[in-house]
Design a protein that fits this description.
The complex is a heterodimer.
Chain A (H helix, E strand, L loop, with lengths): L12 H7 E12 L38 H13 L3 E2 L6 E4 L9 E4 L6 E10 L2 E14 L3 E5 L11 E5 L6 E7 L9 H19 L11 E11 L9 E6 L2 H20 L7 E6 L4 E7 L9 E2 L10 H8 L6 H12 L3 H9 L3 H9 L4 H9 L1 H9 L10 H12 L5 H12 L5 H8 L7 H14 L1 H8 L6 H11 L6 H11 L2
Parallel strand pairs in A: 11-12
Antiparallel strand pairs in A: 1-9, 1-10, 2-5, 3-4, 3-14, 5-6, 6-9, 7-8, 10-11, 12-13
Helix pairs in contact in A: 3-4, 8-9, 8-11, 9-10, 11-12, 12-13, 14-16, 14-17, 16-17
Chain B lengths: L8 H9 L5 H19 L2 E4 L1 H16 L12 E4 L26 H8 L4 E5 L33 H8 L5 E5 L6 H7 L2 E4 L20 E5 L2 H11 L17 H8 L8 E5 L9 H16 L3 E5 L7 H16 L20 H12 L2 H14 L5 H22 L4 E5 L15 H6 L5 H6 L3 E8 L6 E7 L5 H19 L14
Parallel strand pairs in B: 2-3, 2-4, 7-8, 7-9
Antiparallel strand pairs in B: 1-3, 4-6, 5-6, 5-10, 9-11, 10-11
Helix pairs in contact in B: 2-3, 7-8, 7-16, 8-16, 10-12, 10-13
The chains are: A alpha+beta, B alpha/beta.
EC number (chain B): 6.3.5.7
GO molecular function (chain B): ATP binding; glutaminyl-tRNA synthase (glutamine-hydrolyzing) activity; transferase activity
InterPro entries (chain B): Amidase, Amidase_CS, Amidase_dom, AS_sf, GatA
Chain lengths: ~500, ~500
Amino acid sequence: MTAPTTDTALMPFDDVLAAYDPALGLEVHVELNTASKMFCGCPAVFGGEPNAGVCPTCLGLPGAMPVVNGKAVESAIRIGLALNCEIAEWCRFARKNYFYPDMPKNFQTSQYDEPICFDGFMDVEVEGTTYRVEIERAHMEEDTGKSLHVGGSTGRIHGADHSLVDYNRAGIPLIEIVTRPILGAGEKAPEVAKAYVAQLRELIVALGVSEARMDQGNLRADVNLSLSPKGSGTLGTRTETKNVNSFRSVERAVRYEMQRHAAILSGGGTILQETRHWHEDTGITTSGRVKSDAEDYRYFPEPDLVPVAPSREWVEELRGTLPENPTVRRSRLQAEWGFSDLEMRDTVGAGALGLVEETIAEGAAPQAARKWWLGELARRSNEDGVDLVDLPITPADVARIQALVDEKVVNDKLARQVFEGVLAGEGTPDEVVEKRGLAVVSDDGALGAAVDNAIAANPDVADKIRDGKHAAAGALIGAVMKEMRGQADAGRVRELILEKLA
Amino acid sequence: MTEIVRSTAAALAERLAAGEVTSTELTEAHLDRIDAVDGAVHAFLHVDRDGALADAAESDARRARGEARGPLDGVPIAVKDVLTTRGLPTTCGSRILEGWIPPYDATVVTRLREAGLPILGKTNMDEFAMGSSTEHSAYGPTRNPWDLDRIPGGSGGGSAAAVAAFEAPLAIGTDTGGSIRQPGAVTGTVGVKPTYGGVSRYGLVALANSLDQAGPVTRTVLDAAMLHDVIGGHDPRDSTSIAQEWPSFTEAARAGSTGDMTGVKVGVITELAGEGWQPGVMARFQESVDLLVKAGAEVVEVSCPSFVHALAAYYLILPAEASSNLAKFDAMRFGLRVVPDGDPSAEEVMRATRDAGFGDEVKRRIILGTYALSSGYYDAYYGQAQKIRTLISRDFDAAFGSVDVLVSPTAPTTAFRLGEKLDDPMAMYLNDLATIPANLAGVPGISVPNGLADEDGLPSGFQVLAPALADDRVYRVGAALEAMYAEQWGGLLLDRAPGLETE
């Protein structure tokens, strides 16, 4: 076990591109939000008391048998259709055999050479250029249990004192979406990877088939990367970086692996075909398991399940339930919101399209919604190193804070404190305003006294205003705000000053 | 031995209905019989005296209230130890499940309970149903009530011996390649493998999922039909279970027992005879065919050329599925756990447990199956085996295009001696030559006792196979043959079995 270190040799990014062409591949696991698990009636809810949501089937007890969850098949088909895939007329589940303590049967019921969805694509836009990402397949499978390795320094099984396994997650339906190698992205490879995952998430949210929260593991990305000598048209040896769990990490992991591969290759070394672990904190990958040809999952068709054969009528019926195509949707939203091209591109690039849309749906004006998500909240997400969607604040919260501004309960400056409170888990926007005492004072009695004090303390400014120089009111407003610790309705203060000095 | 344990289940059902006997009396009589003879026979791995008597008392109370749940309410039964029973040990004849008490009932067991049959206990079997002699049980072999030095067949030797030794009027077996029918043949009892999907497999600890099927083990064809009516039918917990209404098999058996076979076309399978088939077994088979002709059946010879490859295909498909099924026995969640000295990893615990918990035959098949599924070998072995399976199904389809049922001897020989074939797996495997094709094609089959072989005076069996879904035909033809023999013999073949009483 190599401890995470940062002394790995890296080649400067621009030098990588001068010598090599990157080939990208992404495998994304989507945890479906069906009521029950993939093959049994247990609730498909992870968390809660460990091993409470289990039955003989998802525990892999002797004699228990699987039954396919029809709703999961429906979700798989809808995802496939949204990704422009063909839907198999007939397909089977297969057993992927390998031993691991958190896998109840020591085989995963998955799909092998007969995926339910295949041969699709998704167009991804990065800075005005469209990249077509080809989808090789999207297939159904079940999740494993979750191991907690107690003791030891790494939190991994080797070196742990003991391990605990929670099987609540075992059997939760997953859809694995696999791309073909993405070639020709060049210097934009990291951004294309990020944009693909972000747009895929947007699609999954629009389909309503998953909670799609990367920080909760509802959406998990594995990043495959290889380099080949520039212009050679070949494919190099790839590494597979597992469980990269945010958009920005996807981008960083691609960038890191490109630089690491290039350093090794340019030094005459060879890339080991292996899985690698991503370290969110240090932004590096470390060696995991070596994937050799010896790894043999002994796939064969699951004999306990009959083939899945979705009728063409059903598939067409499901096609009718698809959300709008992402490109069409963007054009529509841009027109509806009146965003400039640049504003739209920034919104999409920040992964904020869905968030802005939801915020507007909750009642905020488009520019206000954009301002908060791309301003205050984007700043926070950068500082905290998390994606916007993973910030502990909802579009409804953002819309409510804007409403508080519109209702003049808070001003912009106080609104930032409300954001801070909500992000700190102090409650809803209204609760934060209440607890922190942030509401601006627009009550004439309280404000009047402060205005009087300000006039008394600044006689020469007051004289200027009396002489009609209304612009000078700013100095008095500032004095009032200072006395009121910022919690005054600036507009009302101005009115009061002008009334009193009329 | 009280006379009551010699009754057929159908007769017991009548006596219960007439109020001549109580379920408690019946159940006690069988438990006493088990006490008396099972030391010698070893048909049971676990006897649930208290549970069975409690079930019997409830049955009696129900009947007293006029709420009996069906004809077999109160008739006790034995269950092969490969079906899960809530609160009762289930070992599959393996050390690796020693001490495991399942938290749930198999669907077959649920249906038995719902129909009011007290469960006497769990019967012995070859470990994970791998074998044809019950010698591969980790808990010691079961002995054939006809001759205690001989095997009772397998893997369900426990269920067949329990019925043959009058320890239970009814039993449940499971049949993957003949494990119900072959023990039936060598113990002089009746065994039925239903159409694949006819009886739920939920709770049946899988040997080979695509071949396994639970079914009745009884002393008469009518008893088997009555039991089949209780355990059969669609189960949403088993995806491979057939969703359709089934005809009454009890009625089919009653119709057959008139002995009239007029208009029935019977095909004798050419490939299931010849070298290696015991002359006494073949002689009895020919007599049975002659009887069917006498009863009005039209008999023709039918060739099923692919059947000669059935054994080879079976011994690839079965180990492949089994190697994967048995992976779950890893000491993590249930059953045996062997912890090596020192500070072992999870992998080391798994390895040590599987090494200590599985017997040699199980390990042999795990290795075979793992090999057959390996990358680079899959097409040559598993893939080819599946093709043979398709060819065998086609042979059946073609045959059933011209005949109503196919017949053969159930097993090539009568019961062999304990230990005789233990060191020769191939010889052991050959015992299932005639029964395996039905499992590969998913069609139903029955074995009916058809006399004693001249060489050794031991029972032989007559197999009747029908197209998938046409289980009623095997009951009809089986009951007809049984009725003709009953007339000839003045009773059942088992009436001629030697007594087991030591007193």
